[in-house]
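Bug #77: duplicate submission created two jobs. Keeping one. Sequence:
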Amino acid sequence: MAEYPFRSALVTGASSGIGEIMAGRLADAGVATTVVARRSERLDALADRHTGVEPLVADLATEAGQSVVAARIANGDVDLVVNNAGFGTNGDFHTLDPDRLADEIEVNVAALTRLSHAALAVMVPRGSGWLLNVSSVAGFQPAPQLAVYAATKAYVTSLTESLHEEAAPHGVHVTALCPGLTKTEFQRVSNADRYADQFPSFVWTSPDEVARCGLECVVANRTLAVPGTQYKLMVAATNITPRWLRRRASAIVQRG
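Kept job's structure:
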């Protein structure tokens, strides 16, 4: 069983996928964990399976939901905040529901920004704390048909890198977790189920591998956590590949 330096944590998007696995790992390691999501039944089931889990039902697409979670963080008794909540929308931009895209930006960008601020407002004066923001390798290049999702994750990565530098002198660890293809509910929610058949098994990472990588890297104060050798190589290649080539390659992959 892993051992962590934090005694308490808060994980958003904990009702499934990476967030659910991460919350379970923390709780099983003896970390008191507040789990946040919209689906109360999922959170209650998680609390039944793991000791020390406290459900907090909130919709992060709303100001009210963000306020509830920010207030919980502001109590000052949370050592680790994991901003995992987020979703994508697959399809040609002009055909997509603009209200859904607005919610996507609200959850992926606005909520994460507000909760990151709430976390650092407590952690920096305290001189200790850990903030883990879940981004994606999609944020390292344009992603036609996942355009808004990729743009939001580019924001998350850039913001987190900046916060890493700001917080480091104060003893606070800030890390961006950037997974690649991971088999979770993301594909169904994002209308991207075809990815399961389109891409070979070796490109997929497991939620457990991603959760473990994220927690280990935020403890080690890594700026970026990229699970999987294949994605580490891909991210490294973005530094030497012209943007036009990355853009065209991404469009070809999306068309399948």
